[in-house]
Specification:
The chain has 332 residues and is an alpha+beta fold. The chain is 23% helix and 28% strand. Strands 1, 2, 3, 4, 5, 6, 7 and 8 form an eight-stranded antiparallel sheet that branches. Strands 9, 10, 11, 12, 13, 14 and 15 form a seven-stranded antiparallel sheet that branches. Strand 11 and strand 12 form a beta hairpin. The longest helix has 44 residues. The chain is elongated, with a radius of gyration of 28 Å.
């Protein structure tokens, strides 16, 4: 289908459970003594640092009476989210390259949640909170119920937060911090994507070379990005340029020979698109620019310049290098 040529490149920002890795050494220091418990069921240990040691900080009346002075502000902190068996679920010290995260301090409306737990903290505190997983995953308002993941149930059916707080900031500072955190997360995602693409390109190149040998495709040329191409029928005139509208006939297939799309399958005129505008897969934007009007060619495109890790529907699996036999019918 022609719609499969649309490029879906974007960075998806995921959000999981809160997390910032709190050091194992510090956790061990805070491990002594029994958990206290709020009326809502949160188990907690809260400590303040006195000199080089941590001392237990008692909460009287099941709440911190000074919290009203912190409502509307943000508490900067490191948080580590773990299972009941101490497996780290998420570490935003890793996720955000060691940066603190801002925790909003609001009027507590949901008891038994991290919202209530954070209300017990003051700047400089370190704490361990343990939540019953059923209470965290129960529906809120009209929302449908969410089952507790099996791995949490097997690990004690609890979610444990280790928190180390630092200071209080206002909303403007929190917004600046959140923007910085988002940039750090996007940079880390980009780094991971580039690392994966480099490894995948090596695999694709080996697959494309083996395919070319098996099909006796001699005379192939290779672009610096990794596309193999062969112009089987030269055209005439200048090469197609970025921004021009090109009209193509094509057949696309997997390396096992399965045809996933062809212009012959579609009624009406051949497929047209503006070159170099991201309207097709990156491999097409690059390879078609090597052709002039009337050219026929074969493209072998690595998955990193095709549909990547996502694939395309049921016809093109993830990380699939592709072959296209094309004809550049017109250039305008």
């Amino acid at each position: 289908m022609r719609s499969t040529f649309r490029s879906g490149r974007h960075l998806a920002l995921g959000a999981g459970l809160l997390g910032l890795l709190f050091s194992t050494a510090a956790c061990n220091k805070l491990g002594g003594g029994d958990f206290a418990k709020t009326k809502s069921g949160i188990e907690y240990k809260i400590f303040k640092k006195v000199g080089s040691k941590y001392e237990r900080r008692d909460i009287s009346g099941d709440a911190d009476p000074t919290y009203k002075d912190r409502v509307g502000k943000f508490l900067t902190a490191y948080i580590d989210t773990r299972t009941g068996k101490d497996s780290v679920l998420e570490s935003t010290r890793t996720k955000f390259q060691g940066a603190l995260v801002p925790l909003p301090l609001q009027e507590v409306k949901r008891k038994g949640t991290p919202e209530e737990a954070f209300a017990l903290l003051t700047p400089g505190d370190s704490a361990v909170f343990r939540f019953n997983a059923d209470s965290l995953f129960k529906p809120q308002g009209p929302n449908p119920p969410r089952p507790v993941p099996p791995f949490l149930k097997k690990a004690g059916n609890v979610v444990v937060l280790h928190v180390a707080t630092r200071g209080l900031i206002d909303q403007a500072a929190a917004m600046t911090m959140q923007q910085d955190l988002q940039q750090k997360m996007m940079a880390e995602q980009q780094r991971q994507m580039m690392a994966f693409a480099g490894d995948q390109l090596k695999k694709d190149d080996a697959a494309l070379q083996a395919y070319a040998k098996s099909k006796n495709l001699t005379g192939l040329k290779k672009t610096p990005s990794g596309i193999y191409y062969q112009i089987t029928t030269p055209g005439a005139g200048p090469l197609a340029k970025q921004g021009q509208t090109v009209t193509m006939k094509y057949t696309g297939m997997l390396l096992d020979g399965k045809v996933f799309d062809s212009s012959d399958k579609h009624p009406g005129p051949p497929f047209s698109f503006p070159l170099g505008q991201g309207k097709v897969i990156p491999g097409w934007d690059e390879a078609v620019a090597l052709l002039n009007k009337g050219s026929k060619a074969t493209f072998l495109i690595p998955s990193t310049l095709a549909y990547g890790q996502q694939g395309a529907g049921a016809d093109i699996p993830a990380n699939a290098p592709l072959r296209f036999d094309v004809e550049l019918v017109d250039v305008k």
